[in-house]
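Supplementary Methods. Inverse-folding protocol.

Structures were first reduced to a discrete structure-token string of length 358. This string, shown here, constituted the complete conditioning input.
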């Protein structure tokens, strides 16, 4: 809730070159309650004073030497602190063109000289109330903005937590290590950034990519844990993990889960159309899938498996480069090549053998 701290005194600016009038108005304003009065006898002095100080209600005389009241109001309104602060203009002038000019400059009220104390009191009190209402409105708007930002951040945090836990769950069934998914996710965000994609996407792909193999929860352990090469039938059963994963993740309103579903479905598609599950070709494969394909394969190659040695960084890197236009999107491979050092750093920072360095 908004704080209900004790109300600060209302600051009233009064500008009149006639000292007697200025003193009279100061006295009348002081009678209206807890006020702080800023009195000036010239526009120049007021402008100088407002550099350091602020006000809530302004009372400005029209006829002043050098800079008149209308020009002073105009200058005050140029200051972003005072664009809607109530200002009343004091004038003897009955001329409507003066009043029109004052309204255009930003005056909201007029008071006529000689000042009639009762009318002055009522009008200034009304402006004080208006000023308070405006301030409360601004405070409320700021509080609302803060509350919305907080709620959005909490929602986002919960989405990220759910995703993190889903990724953890999928890790229990998949013999690929947690570090595989972490590295693979980082490669994805490095590639996305290099491709000039929006920062939000680069962050999201890093969060969504670890779930690319979540569909393996639907594959039998005999196939998943088999040490030798898979038979034709086993391979086709295994390839179902893409659609199973997409099925688990799709249909959500959460952007992150939608992206995760897209990656799960398409990370085994190939640029040349020889991939699975839909044999999509070229740009008909979503960009997230084209990025994830490189990240996933590169990391799998550099990892040791019961049935294969870990490839060296150079060998796996060359493989990705050779597959440009065949297995992988050439534009993504070009970005991958430009990020060679960053990729190498991630590979060494999240080693399966050692502890996570970052
Ligand atoms: Fe996969
Ligand atoms: Fe993978």
């Amino acid at each position: 809730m908004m704080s209900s701290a004790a109300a600060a005194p209302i600051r009233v600016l009064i500008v009149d070159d006639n000292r007697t009038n200025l003193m009279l108005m100061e006295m009348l304003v002081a009678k209206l309650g807890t006020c702080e009065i800023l009195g000036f006898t010239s526009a120049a002095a007021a402008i100088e004073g407002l550099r350091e100080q602020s006000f809530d209600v302004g009372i400005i005389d029209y006829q002043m030497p050098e800079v008149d009241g209308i020009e002073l109001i105009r200058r005050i309104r140029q200051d972003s602190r005072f664009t809607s602060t109530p200002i009343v203009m004091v004038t003897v002038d009955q001329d409507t063109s003066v009043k029109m000019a004052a309204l255009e400059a930003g005056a909201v009220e007029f008071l006529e000289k000689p000042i009639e104390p009762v009318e002055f009191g009522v009008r200034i009190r009304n402006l004080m109330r208006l000023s308070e209402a405006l301030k409360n409105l601004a405070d409320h708007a700021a509080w609302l903005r803060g509350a919305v930002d907080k709620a959005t951040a909490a929602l986002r945090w919960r989405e990220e937590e759910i995703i993190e836990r889903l990724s953890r769950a999928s890790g229990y069934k998949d013999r690929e290590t947690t570090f595989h998914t972490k590295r693979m996710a980082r490669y994805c965000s490095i590639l996305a950034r290099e491709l000039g994609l929006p920062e939000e996407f680069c962050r999201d792909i890093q969060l969504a990519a670890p779930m690319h193999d979540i569909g393996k929860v639907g594959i039998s352990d005999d196939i998943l844990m088999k040490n030798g090469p898979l038979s034709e039938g086993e391979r086709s059963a295994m390839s179902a993990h893409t659609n199973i994963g997409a099925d688990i993740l799709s249909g959500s309103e959460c952007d992150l889960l939608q992206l995760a579903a897209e990656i799960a479905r398409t990370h085994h598609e190939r640029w040349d159309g020889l991939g699975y599950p839909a044999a999509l070709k070229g740009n008909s494969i979503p960009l997230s899938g084209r990025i994830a394909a490189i990240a996933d394969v590169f990391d799998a190659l550099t990892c040791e498996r019961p049935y294969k040695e870990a490839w060296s960084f150079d060998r796996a890197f060359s493989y990705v480069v050779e597959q440009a236009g065949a297995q992988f999107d050439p534009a993504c491979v070009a970005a991958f090549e430009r990020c060679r050092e960053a990729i190498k750093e991630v590979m060494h920072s999240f080693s399966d053998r050692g502890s996570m360095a970052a």
